Amino acid sequence: MEFAPVLRAEWLKVRSLRSLPGTLLGLFAATTGFSALAGASGTTGPESDALFTALSGVVPGQIAAIAFGTLAVSSEFPGGGLRLSLAAVPRRGRWFAAKAAVVAAATFPVGLLTAATALLAARAGLGAAASGLTAGEQVRGVVGCGVYLTLMALFAAGLTLLLRSGTATLALLIPFVLVVAFVIGDAAGTVADFLPDRAGQVVLHETYGRTPGPWTGLGVTALWTAAALLAGTWSLRRRDA
Hints:
About 75% of the residues lie in helices and about 0% in strands. It has ten helices and no strands. Helix 6 (about 90-125) runs antiparallel to helix 10. The longest helix has about 35 residues, at about 90-125. About 45% of the residues are buried.
């Protein structure tokens, strides 16, 4: 089967499962809401990072992106759905490539819209504290945010296929991005800056005095994501459906 019809079939799956569009809506609502609260809190000071404050809703909001990537794959497991999908598309790598492409195509525009809305909502609360942000910094933050959320969704998709469990993926990733990475970061110093979430979030900061930089950090996250996708593909080819 050619790639285009496989891609179309996977897109229809995402549209037909109510939980998946709902998860993207949750991504928008959570990120925008928490960023608006951060902007209205009035906690910014001379040394604060106005861009990260405005986009800080991404930290809790990324859970929805992770959930989207996880559910897009784990929805294939109940009732022998994966077996049916692979019967229709015997080339397993092609099937998963289409699945990953749909996850990315759905997450990226939602991530851009979410970041832009969150930035506007937070800036209204920040007032003069955000006046120093340049147009370039804001564009970098919005585009980088969209890329980061997409990479995290794909990272979750690859890990879900590797573990063959959406529950295990969420139980592993959610505590990791909310708690473990920060604890490790405090203890391990610069080594922790190369964890997938910490590296990718550098692009959300107005100023950054550490390695990697904003785009290099996204590159590090992309490497983690590529490793997860390759591991998931390997598992798919080696194990029974």
